[in-house]
Amino acid sequence: MSEDFFLPDPEGRVPSTAGYFGAFGGKFIPEALVAAVDEVAAEYAKAKDDPGFAAELNDLLVNYTGRPSALTEVPRFAEHAGGARVFLKREDLNHTGSHKINNVLGQALLTRRMGKTRVIAETGAGQHGVATATACALFGLDCTIYMGEIDTRRQALNVARMRMLGAEVVPVTSGSRTLKDAINEAFRDWVANVDSTHYLFGTVAGPHPFPALVRDFHRVIGVEARRQILQRAGRLPDAVAACVGGGSNAIGLFHAFIGDADVRLVGLEAAGHGVDSGEHAATLTAGEPGILHGSRSYVLQDDEGQITEPYSISAGLDYPGIGPEHSYLKDTGRAEYRPVTDDQAMRALRLLSQTEGIIPAIESAHALAGALDLGRELGPDGVVLVNLSGRGDKDMDTAARYFGYYDTDADTDTDAAPDQHPRPQQKTEAE
Amino acid sequence: MAGTTHIHGTPAPAAHHDTLPEVPAGARGNLELLEAALAAARAENRAALVGYLPAGFPTVDGGIAACTALLESGCDVVEVGLPHSDPVLDGPVIQTADDIALRGGVRIADVLRTVRETHAATGKPVLCMTYWNPVDRYGPERFAAELAAAGGAGCILPDLPVEESDAWRRSAAHHGLATVFVVAPSSQDARLATITAAGSGFVYAASLMGVTGTRDSVGREAADLVARTRATTDLPVCVGLGVSNARQATEVADFADGVIVGSAFVKELLAHPDDLDAGLAGVRRLAGELAAGVRRD
Fold it and tell me: What are the residue boundaries of the Tryptophan synthase beta chain-like PALP domain, all occurrences included (chain A) (predicted)?
């Protein structure tokens, strides 16, 4: 069965050769990066046709990552979802604790095939950074992770984890000093070091071919889940749900179901303090088409094309862009995208923890909150499949503060810089 | 190119061109003035000096004074930056200036006023340099029309690759604006030919693989890139990235048609945050030194 783990999208489906999903995608990059991006595309095209590549990746996915990941039915949680059956795809059980490792291992193999010796990556809070540092340790590659300075200070443990794995972690002090700026800084590094360096992009955004390439490495999520739920429920789900920041776990789940017209594809994006509050990261709900980080997609921006600051309690969803294929799925109506507030997500996080003994990442909790609503809409005959994209260990400090679980005032031992938002102290980007 | 058609749903350039209303002579951009300025420098057996400063930095009026000072003190051409929230091709110096301008609330109308007043004060060619999203959002046709009406000579859009540039080039050409493309040491020869065939005004050759900023030396790859670019085009080839002093300007003037300096001017203004006059004096002094440097004799 191992040949089923790496499954590039069949020929003839989106994107176009120019990297477009309908009106979205493309390649808006400086000339200095054109050759490098084209090299990635060419190497991936060769790798897709190389049985040796698939065999090596499949071996890693089984024996290193621990695939296939489990499908868990959660009946006690589902009692709060109108009695519908709810199944969780357990990407949280992968090595490193999220779906991110699927893409990272694939791109690490590509890096080696291209003869490059150094990898750079962005990380909002640490999950893609940790997965990348992990793969670099495994493959003996130099690794530099760009991370917004605000996040490095607040996420000392994740920084330590990456450094334990041998990576250099560079705090980014430009702009808003968060994920968006970490990506900007990684691009600046790549322009200067492109001969030796691969930019191991962490989501289904960025210039072509990254949206398609990262998606292909995550398609395994949906392919496994579709097979598993057919076995367990005896039928396809009525809806599949996943959180969306950049959109990688969601596209990985959705893709295997796109051809199943009766299966609703539902993306849950971070509404922060509410879409009307102005403090949110609900790009598909409130954004407009524009160009950010190399492709055309929905973007949170002002009337003159300046990118606006997103906000979410979840660092992994705290991004003002979205992968172009999601913009395409939204505009064609094949997928629907709904906002979930911080409070809704945190309630779902606690509910799953206390009804099923599974602590989800705050990112994934947005999908769980969406599933509660979907279940109520579908009623007792409904079946909902949720991607549990990451585990919540790293969110416990945020959650403890949110719910008041500390016995003493834990705020006193942190870097208590004044902050207009209650940003979490430990975040994952397990989106 | 298929992508651009896809996005905007517009017909082929030639067909579309016919449908655009005619531009009155007085509202056309100053592409010819740019060409003449570069030709004049060549006739004087020297490289042209091209200066860059972002609009709105340190204030809108201060930026207009600084851009005007550049042209009065030795620059042949000025590029006015339209600051962007996400300047991925800029190093820390220009990022800082962009940040100051954006926090000061600079708008596209302010950028256009900077172009208009700088050109009006000097009669010299003024280009706009920015990232694609602000232009895309404003509307390429609207932006081109207003830039031309302000007396602008053209636009440099370093994150708009030639494959995605059809809509912009159509509007730019219609309004008499240059489209200056950036080429890099990594650009293959065949690709250079495609890029230079699409561009106008001049070609911006990046001296090295990297972002904007001052550097100690200009690499040998710059001379190689200029030679490879010249093999594909008669357009002047100007070299930017990393040039900050007269010695480097002389070095680059030896093999290029123009020398582009940005971060070094920004640094002069950043060095005097509370004293615009002192900053302007620094800008004038540096422009004078560089103008002496680009003379080959």
Answer: 65-390
